[in-house]
Write the structure tokens for this entry.
Amino acid sequence: MEFQNARLAYERELEFYNAVKQGDLKKIKKLMVPLEDERLGILSRNPLRNLKYHLITTVALITRFCIEGGLPLNIAYSLSDTYIQQIDLASDSEMISFLHRELIYDFASKMKELRSSPGISQAIIKTLDYIYENIQKRLTLAKISKAIGINRTYLCELFKKETGYSIQRYIIKTKIEAAVDMLAYEDFSIL
């Protein structure tokens, strides 16, 4: 068997990632291939490590496809980081298979929700990205509005309208979520 025939068809792989990007759960179910499938190739001689490598690759690709499809960076990278940390901690193939299904449907559901909700403007996507990229810093409305290039008052109104949160409440929520992830998946103490 030729090498290219032994690998999963590239077109089918793209079709799968595009189905996730579109939030097409029916198509995903049809196209999803178990990580144990030989056509995916061998990335490690250690069977568990091989599954982990394939799943981390899958997370990375899905994250990029979903960002391209409009998923805000903060949500995409938060999901990606959380799943990669869970993959790293997984101790058996059953857990890897569970995470595989869960992360695919998690990203796809978020994309489906994004497609069905009224659009989020570029200004708010930029604002969300700025908040996520600077979450470790002290964020103020003045800094954010200057970075985005929009009047503070207008930005506040638009943010509340499109996200349902005030900017300050969203920052606090995001910082708490980041802290929870750090405690759950990193070696940080509560202090």
In short: Residues 93-116 form the longest helix (24 residues).
